[in-house]
Description:
globular, mainly alpha
Amino acid sequence: MTIIYLLVFGFAATAILGLITSWIDRKVTARVQYRVGPPFLQPVYDLVKLLGKETLIPAGASKGIFLIAPVIGISGVIAVSTLFWVNQFFSEGFMGDWIVAIYLLTIPSISLILAGFASGNPLASLGASREMKLVIAYELPFILAALVPVISAHSIRLSTIIDSQAGGVFAGSISGILALIVAIMCVQAKLALVPFDIPEAETEIVEGPIVEYSGPGLAIFKLMKNMLFFILPFFLMILFFGGLRLNGINILWTLLEYVGIVAIITVIRNTNPRVRIDQAVRFFWGPMTLIAVVAVILALNGL
């Protein structure tokens, strides 16, 4: 049964929904820029095209780490998505799975760091260095923001956090709203989207950590990013909106809440210029951490 969960929910369902979310983002971005945008199956076409190309390994690369890095990244994504699906529909989580989810969500970034340094390319190493600094910057406010639902639910179990919102979502409280704002900004950085696309700045360091990747390796990294584009908003839904409520009128509300989160991410991406890494660090360690701390204090006081 575990293998079925892993294949159906952890990979297949998340991959499909991630590709759809990626298409929505690209389509909205195109409309904002007065373009038509890609067809619905364009993300699939891109992956299939890459899978058919040859994998090239740089002469100075650490071959083993270079090849295993994409596998590490997508394995972390599959594991955390399986954890979310199981808690959402089967309530078969375990005590402390919130902590495990936080750890697993850092694995994709770690895989990019490994990939960048293993490739031996100066631009890739620079991108990996930026990715490392960005992770250090946003991880603290992200954890603090995710801690607010834990305090409100009095549990570090995801299924309990979901069940605790049956009578009212945490996003309806003052602490929940503040934590959600911080979490969305951190998700923007986790996805490396503008204004926090510093590690993969195309106009500066040409895709950064993955500049040397081609063929299946690049396809895995692209799929990993697409899956994250679904998983991270899904995580916010679990923490602040009671998960995916698929009964009656709640189906419509769930869809609107999820699309709303994705829309906010897309709007931020299309209305802001890229910031420098030092500006990003100051932003997350400064106002975002401060707001997250205030949210935690309010949550401890029942607000």
